[in-house]
Amino acid sequence: MTDAAELHRRTQELLAAHPPRSTDRTDFLKARFDAGLAWVHFPEGLGGLGLPRSLQAVVDAELTAAGAPDNEPRRIGIGLGMAAPTILGFGTDEQKRRFLRPLWVGEEVWCQLFSEPGAGSDLAALGTRAVRDEASGDWVVNGQKVWTSGAHNARWAILIARTDPDVPKHRGITYFVCDMTDPGVEVRPLRQITGEAEFNEVFLTGVRIPDAHRLGEIGDGWKVAQTTLMNERVSIGGSRIPREGGMIATLAKTWRERPELRTHDTHQRLLKLWVDAEVARLTGERLRQQLVAGQPGPEGSGMKLNFARLNQEITGLELELLGEDGLLYDDWTMRRPALVDFMGRDAGYRYLRAKGNSIEGGTSEVLLNIVAERVLGLPSEPRTDKDVAWKDLAR
Could you say which of 121, 232, 272, 378 is the most buried, measured as most Cβ atoms within 10 Å of its Cβ? Predict the structure, then answer.
């Protein structure tokens, strides 16, 4: 049997044993995971069947046609797009069994504790400390993280902390899974220009993390974090959308429905952005095809860089096109949403929220360096801190 035929058979067996209309949503998702149909490229026993990533489309199409529930990927995007591939790549067998199933089903939401007030663009300069308690073997963590999406809803966090201040900054970092219910974790909202607070700052005071929740070797945290960051940029900038989908769809809809707003200049700008959006969509398809053969590379940084530029230009033109109507704003109420809803709000919200696209997931300035050095092969910038211990760096 071909892989596709086998997937068809397994999918039909799942639907017959757990009819979507009469099966509890969570129970169905658990059964799907156990059948290896969650992410078919993952190993058997971990929600997959060890098949090519491209065959996931076979399963998804059949389940969608049958009216089966999904796992709300936008709500649990950090877990799916960042935590899961990192756990798969560096976790122990026990960690994979413990975390991947509830993560995929959506029973446990994840967040990312990476950026700090003094270590955003220069992430490797982070100062949050993790010190080993020799008596228990646990790690005791103290520090502050910032710009943490969804921390107010998260059960777990992926965390990088400094475990050795006596070596250069990239070498003294270790990667952990942090329990967000620990009494030493304090989450505070960061109200944004949109009025919402999907971001947070997180204070860690005496947080105890068992060594069993360490991912990778001690001091190898930067290497582990690269897997997270590359997957993050692919998930942000390379998501699958239909032709004229995403942000350009809203602008095109406004153009078609409001002919009185049109000018020759805005028409030319719209055409250029439409073409740019289509090029980005097709490039994303090519990137996903490359993923079938291995892990994401630095090309994802280019996709994320373009995603931010396009979103900001598209929302800017939409606001300009609407004229006086574009000055209206539907609601400044302080909310702490579970996800970002660009399409469910007005043009003013989209314009303001898109400003964050060039910061979150890696600033555009940092991504330009990554593309220049790792994609184009240009010489790297001079670094004066390469061989200096972290504790001796100027701060």
Answer: 232
Q: How many CB atoms lie within 10 A of CB 184?
A: 15
* pLDDT-derived band at 1, boundaries 50, 70, 90: very low
pLDDT value at position 107?
Answer: 97
Mean residue pLDDT across the chain: 91
**Is 244 known to be catalytic?**
no
Q: Alpha-carbon distance 99 to 118, whole Å?
A: 30
132-158 tens-digit pLDDT = 999 999 999 999 999 999 999 999 999
Q: Which two tokens stand for residue 345?
A: 């709000």
The answer to whether the beta carbons of residues 80 and 111 sit under 8 Å apart is no
pLDDT of residue 48: 96
Rounded to whole angstroms, the Cα distance separating 47 from 56 reads 12
Measured CA to CA, the distance from residue 312 to residue 200 in angstroms comes to 23
Q: Are 219 and 171 in contact (CB under 8 A)?
A: yes
Q: Is the per-residue pLDDT at 237 higher than 60?
A: no
Residue 340 predicted with pLDDT over 90: no
The pLDDT value recorded for residue 305 is: 87
The pair of structure tokens assigned to 151 is: 């921390």
Percentage of the residues of the chain whose pLDDT score is greater than 90: 69
The 8-class DSSP code of residue 358 comes to G
Task: Round to whole Å and give the CA distance between 359 and 371.
Answer: 16
Q: Please, is 302 exposed, middle or buried when counting C-beta atoms within 10 Å of its C-beta (0-12, 13-18, 19+)?
A: buried
Give mean pLDDT, residues 40-52.
94
Gap between the Cα atoms of 319 and 61, Å rounded:
36
Rounded distance between C-alpha atoms, residue 26 and residue 107, angstroms: 8
Residue matched to tokens 């489309």: 57
> What is d(CA 112, CA 98) in angstroms, rounded to the nearest whole number?
18
| DSSP string covering 91-103 | --HHHHHHHHHHH
Q: Quick one: tokens of 167?
A: 């070596």
Task: Answer yes or no: are the C-beta atoms of 238 and 263 closer than 8 Å.
Answer: no
Q: Are 46 and 96 in contact (CB under 8 A)?
A: yes
Which of 285, 302, 308, 293 has the alpha carbon at shortest distance from 355?
308
